[in-house]
Amino acid sequence: MDKAKKLLKNIRLFFSYRELLFNLSNREISQRYKQSVLGYAWVILNPLFQLLVLTFVFSTIFKVASFNVPYIIFLIVGLLPWNFFAASLSSAANALVNNSSLVTKIYFPREILVYSTIIAKIVDFLYSCIVLVFFFMFYKVGITYHIVWVIPIFIIQLIFTAGLSLLLASFNLFYRDIQYLLSLIVSLWFYLTPVIYPVEQFPEKYRWIFAINPMSVITNAYRQVVLSGGEPNLKSLGVALLTSLILFIVSFLIFKKNEGEFADYV
Amino acid sequence: MIKAENLSKQYSITKQRTFKEFLPALLGGHDTVSNFLALSHLNFEIQKGESLGILGKNGSGKSTLLKIIAGVTKPSDGRITVVGKVAPLIELGAGFHPELTGKENVYLNGSILGIKKKHMDKLYNNIVRFAELEEFMDEPVKHYSSGMYMRLAFSVAVAEKPDILLVDEILAVGDIKFQQKCLDRIKEFQMMGSTLILVTHNPDQIGTYCQKALVLDNGKQIYYGEVNEGVEKYKNILS
Questions:
Q1: Degrees (nearest 5) of the Cα angle B224, B229, B235?
Q2: Which of A142, A215, B26, B29 is deepest in the core (most CB within 10 A)?
Q3: Which candidate from B14, B22, B73 shows the least CB-CB separation from A260?
Q4: ipTM strictly over 0.90?
Q5: B32: distance to nearest CA of chain A, Å?
């Protein structure tokens, strides 16, 4: 009962600071590109070149199967959400450390720092979808109304990302090695998620890896609803949602429990 | 109102900040943390509208006490009760970002202090006038001189009357004229019933602005009470 009251108080406090959330996200977005010549164009140019190189390597050199769509279309549907995931984690890991001057001076709910970096990455992600729209139009890829499934899938991805980010941000404060460990793990994780290849090409006896990897379920679900125009596998998506929710709640509680000590360690 | 009862703060300092250092120490059975008592057993009470000066040498725990009052860190023992909205004026401009314009920074800093945008729209002109930066608000603050930077930060911090104002070693803000303006503003707040918590090395400032003094030495409370006697005790420590 006492715990529930405390949680309610925390949530109310968070809402009273919602303007700060948007101002910090805005700061994150505008500071990054203010000094560069091409500005926000980098958000589009980056995935574009990444796509071209990966497509060349995996469809021309390695000849990875992509079923009935061009490989670049197959790739882009998995790659853009993955980029959002990876970029969110690496910026969230440093969210508290980079704002040490705020953390040690003024009280506000600290999770705002983590959420604001994720919001900035969502904006990047949406801009990068321009590339996707361009290639879909170029190859005249048809979509069906099942595309609306993208929204719930994205929400599941968001919950999973936020949960992991909260955990990483607080641990990185106590041990700065987390950020280096993270870049290693994310690059390995990329290869163990069916982003550049279809699940079907993965040896059957290792496929259990995908079952315990929510990002793989999410990537597959995106492909199913965008490319195959069907419903996603609801059972595995449900498991992913449940895993993500549990992860988020546990991470949030850990984050809140340690919050009082952040200023001492930063 | 602020009330400290048996307030203590112990920092546990992790000796090893990286795995490379931490793992061998853990396996070798060495200590991984050492404890450091930054504040021990403080007791004081300040009523609404009263002001407190905190005196002490460097490293005596003054800034830690301000952090506890600001709610940034928790006491490890004892209790602190703070009633009212706290405005920290510690290290001005903590929330500023060099690439953003003066105007953007004012709104950003305002929201860090918990001021809503609608309300900030009303305060904005006053802030700019107080900072005397009318022509520079659309410039990124990285082009500001450090004096301009401080003036803007101070103006945002004192835009609204706080219940409790925390001031750490201030008032190296801008020229003497601006400093006086800041002090006047602080005095004005005090008249309107704000509590001022002032940390300084300058006993004269305490005499001018505070009714109560707290003297700290190595985290211990040497004295709490009237200002004049507090200043005497502080001078004793120094000599």
A1: 100
A2: A215
A3: B73
A4: no
A5: 13
